[in-house]
Amino acid sequence: MSNPKALDILLKALQAGRLHHAILLFGPSMDALENVAKEVAQRLLGPCRGRHPDLFELRPQGKMRFIKIGSESDKIGADWPPNTMRRLLRDISQTSSMGGNKVALIYEADRMNASAANAFLKTLEEPPKGTTIFMLTARPNDLLDTIRSRCISLRVESDPEPVRDEQWRAWLDDFRDWQKKLSGGIKGQSALAETVMRCYGLLARFDSILSRLTDESSDIGESESEELDDDVIDAIVAGERRSLRKRLFGEIEDACAACALGGDGVPAVKLYRTVEALEKASGLTELNMPDTSALEYFMLTSIRIWGR
With b meaning 16 or more CB within 10 Å and e meaning fewer, what string describes 85-107? Predict the structure, then answer.
């Protein structure tokens, strides 16, 4: 079970006949969110060999991973195209194939474009009978307030999914080595100069990796860019960078703590002050300090802490 607390709450509500028709599950791991939603869905739908005909899923698509409403031009005969909001809404409005409940899972629900979100909002206001809708997201604040207000929200606690990028894994290895040598103390001016130079080398690589990962995750196709104005595109890119930065900073904190805890006789007060400095740096980025400047503050503070 991915998250006993969230799952227990939902199962108790189901057993008592008080399960809400719209449930927003949020947390750092999409796998954990999916596991909780599907466990409850299985209880709602009952046993079935293979894919259950009353379980409907909607996922983002395209380079920008949007949840699209579905256009008239993409219709297949008289039917809306698959994996679109209109297709999902049509499916859950129909009678259950098995004569029981229906369940809809919307992955990365914050990825609804404006037209999809507005169409979905109408369904939340008048939900189909016997239908439970799960919305899964790592960024609940990016959903419309009018959607969030019509849902029961539950946080699914789990470890964040690691950033699977070779350059980033190499950066973390080099950071751990830098931190390990730093925690051993800095002896002499030449050692200090080498430490500072490695610090700025890591900073330059961090900015390059974060920018590349942001570009890759927010790459907008020509057809998609025609649907969006510049302000929306800028907001999407900024949101992607913010989300990625938070994940990278979390992994830096884990690496920092692991390096310090792995040493013999590492003063607990220095470890505490180092983690505190990283948390402050992360907070400064939320106040619009540039990512690399915030990380520079943390790394230079680390040099002062461990160099004394």
Answer: bbbbbebbeeebeeeebbbbbbb
